[in-house]
Design brief:
It is a single chain. The protein has 232 residues and is of the alpha+beta class. The strands form four sheets. The chain has a two-stranded antiparallel ribbon. The chain has a two-stranded antiparallel sheet with strand order 3-4. Helix 7 crosses helix 8. It has one domain: Recoverin, domain 1 (Orthogonal Bundle), CATH 1.10.238.10. The protein is globular and about 55 Å long. It starts with a strand and ends with a helix. It is built from ten helices and eight strands. This is EF-hand domain-containing protein. GO terms for molecular function: calcium ion binding. InterPro entries: EF-hand-dom_pair, EF_Hand_1_Ca_BS, EF_hand_dom, Recoverin.
């Protein structure tokens, strides 16, 4: 089973969705998904309404300096974000609900939690607009190394700038759960997959993968990059 990550931001028709999905290349789902809903949809039990809230100049300047978007584009993204998240906060529950739409019969929460943690930069329990747009920008406009860095962060669960066997196994297992993968024996077991990945990336054999090892290893090995960060 080849594991793919697909990241989709859909702002068409006045709706916005953010998700980073692993899908199997053997299924019809190996394409970009679009989950949209109209302005009358409900998020968190409350009717979504367009807000007139404006970003302050400092925030616009910060995002202009750190993304490839113009102030006008940033304002457009912000209004779309508020239509789906009127409070200006995207909760982990809302984030998980997106995954459940595509994998209703499987376990989505474990994997979505890892992606949510990666986007929630300040670890305050929700994704705000700045965090949202920074993630969008890396995926849409970042170079290869920046995108690989984002993939690294998903596996680096404790944010210590290193990935150990336990962390990688946890994420790979979460992906299996999300996809409903039942074949977990032999070469296809999470443990064996992780073992092979560690052997290729752990250059200094300290049982941990640093950011540099992850990025450089994926840059040099197309097969490995396709497995760990195929959206790059």
């Amino acid at each position: 089973m080849d594991i793919f990550y697909k990241y989709k931001i859909d702002c068409s028709g006045g709706s916005l969705v953010i998700f980073y999905l692993p899908v199997s290349t053997c299924s019809d789902s190996a394409y970009y998904y679009s989950y949209t809903h109209n302005s009358n949809s409900k998020m968190g039990g409350k009717e979504s309404k367009k807000l007139d809230s404006e970003l302050d100049e400092a925030t616009i300047q910060r995002l202009t300096n750190n993304t490839n978007y113009t102030p006008e584009q940033i304002q457009q993204w912000h209004q779309a974000f508020l239509r789906d998240c009127p409070s200006g906060k995207l909760s982990d529950r809302q984030f998980t609900e997106v995954y459940k739409k595509f994998y209703p019969e499987h376990e989505a929460e474990k994997y979505s939690n890892q992606v949510f943690r990666t986007f929630d930069i300040d670890n305050n329990g929700y994704i705000d607009f700045v965090e949202f747009l920074l993630a969008v920008n890396i995926n849409s406009n970042g170079d290869v190394r920046e995108k690989l860095g984002l993939a690294f962060d998903i596996y680096d669960i404790n944010s210590d700038e290193k990935i150990d066997k336990k962390e990688m196994t946890k994420v790979i297992t979460a992906i299996y759960d999300l996809l409903g993968e039942d074949n977990r024996k032999g070469e296809n077991s999470p443990d064996n997959r992780v073992k092979k990945i560690m052997e290729k990336l752990d250059i200094n054999d300290d049982k941990k993968i640093t950011r540099d090892e992850f990025v450089e290893g994926c840059m040099k090995d197309d097969v490995l990059r396709q497995l760990l960060a195929p959206n790059v």
